[in-house]
Amino acid sequence: MRPATIALLIRMRKSLIQPLLATLVIALCLAAPHAVVLAKDSGPGEVLPDACQTGCVSAYGTLLGTAAGGVPAYSNCRADCVVFVPNTEAGVYTGIRWQCVEFARRWLLQHQGAVYGDVDVAADIWDRIDHLERVADRSAIPLVAYPNGSRQAPAVGDLLIYARAFLGTGHVAVVTGVDLATHKVRVAEENYLNRKWPGDYAREIELVVRDGRYWLLDAYLLGWKHAAG
Q1: For the segment 31-50, what is each residue's pLDDT rounded down to a tens digit?
Q2: DSSP string for residues in the chain
Q3: Cα separation of 119 and 70, whole Å?
Q4: Nearest Cα residue to 125 out of 103, 101, 142, 146
């Protein structure tokens, strides 16, 4: 066979193979989201990644409880489960389902009409977020940081921020109750224990007062951030 003929055949094969490869790549890209995602209200045929199906305290998407004011919290199965489905509330982005950052934004949105900006992990709220933004007019509400052991007691609506040393991401919870008589603080949250709530809160944290300073006895807790407006 002549060299010119061989070259022609090679070009013909490439012209046939390349479109087939392109079609295959497009098909895989279109199929991928439906193969790994299952949200609380997902459609039939969608499945979860393995990390969100095994070893769950409560099945992914299970209603764990509802905080005062009617803010529901859902199970994320376990800490290393990540489902890249964005959640919105009244058209406002609140975060990736059902992470702690998402719940805190949703709680603030409902109670204060404001949200905080983007963070890579929950621990970043401590150093990188210094204000909330009102959804209605985009005005800023300053956030004041009070380290654990401050003279300022935690208050309802404060955000408890945990260090990155906790699971490599930290954590954020919302204070929903403070009882100085019983020395208990109640919090609402997602993706911490991932178990059913005992009431309209996820758990209670012991509060100790020494020499006018307030300490929450919770490992990895950096402190609380308070909306000053």
Answers
A1: 333 233 344 444 444 579 99
A2: --HHHHHHHHHHHHHHHHHHHHHHHHHHHHHHHHHH---TTPPTT----GGGTSS-SS-TT-EEEEETTTEEEE--SSTT-----EEEETTEEEEETT-HHHHHHHHHHHHHSEE----SSTTHHHHH--EEEETTT--EEEEEEEETTBSSPP-TTPEEEE-TTTTTT-EEEEEEEEETTTTEEEEE-SSSS-S--SSSSSEEEEEEEETTEEEE--TTEEEEEEE--
A3: 25
A4: 101
Q: What are the tokens at 186? A: 């109640």
Task: State the Cα–Cα distance between residues 201 and 203, nearest whole angstrom.
Answer: 6
Residue 229's identity, in one-letter code, is G
- Contact yes or no for 117/92 (Cβ under 8 A): no
Cα separation, 128 vs 47, whole angstroms: 35
- Active-site amino acid positions: 100
Q: What is the CA radius of gyration of the chain?
A: 24
Task: Answer whether 0.85 is exceeded by the pTM.
Answer: no
Q: Has residue 103 got a pLDDT over 70?
A: yes
pLDDT tens-digit readout, 168-216: 999 999 999 999 999 999 999 999 999 999 999 999 999 999 999 999 9
Do 172 and 194 form a contact (C-beta atoms < 8 A)?
A: no
